[in-house]
Write a structure and sequence with these properties.
Blueprint (H helix, E strand, L loop, with lengths): L2 H28 L3 H27 L9 H14 L5 H24 L5 H25 L2
Helix pairs in contact: 1-2, 1-3, 1-4, 2-5, 4-5
Pfam families: DUF2383
Protein name: DUF2383 domain-containing protein
């Protein structure tokens, strides 16, 4: 696998991690229920850790990691916040589940397919597995 392709793909993935971090920041501000808020803060910490892992991998490959979600991500975030009015904690959790599934997991699987070296792919798969755990946990919060 070409190193520059791997770096480019990992940077796109990293931009997605920053989008997730900022989405969770928005959710945290809106959550009313304290235990739920603590759970979402914990998930955001995982997202930040994932961003650090990917940044380090990019640097180890000789690249420069991005430091934000990029212009497109910022625009999508602003539009999403304007369109989606979350009125309840349940609405926030449902939106977080959708974001993790649709943007965090499915889009990443498409993004990295045949574009990463073995070590980078392993890192991304470990992160996706943790994201799947987040989805399962968020779903359990809806049913408790």
């Amino acid at each position: 696998m070409e190193k520059q392709q791997t770096i480019k793909t990992l940077n796109k993935f990293l931009q997605g991690q920053y989008m997730g971090i900022h989405a969770y920041e928005h959710f945290i501000k809106k959550l009313q229920q304290s235990p739920l808020k603590d759970s979402v803060i914990s998930i955001q910490k995982d997202q930040k850790n994932h961003a650090n892992i990917i940044s380090e991998r990019i640097q180890n490959l000789g690249g420069t990691p991005v430091t934000s979600e990029g212009l497109v991500g910022k625009v999508e975030g602003v539009i999403g916040n304007l369109i989606n009015n979350y009125n309840t904690d349940e609405d926030i959790i449902k939106h977080a589940i959708k974001g993790e599934n649709q943007y965090g997991i499915k889009m990443t699987e498409d993004l990295v397919r045949d574009k990463l070296d073995e070590e980078s792919l392993k890192l991304v798969h470990n992160i996706l597995n943790k994201d799947r755990e987040h989805v399962d946990y968020l779903k359990s919060l809806l049913h408790s």
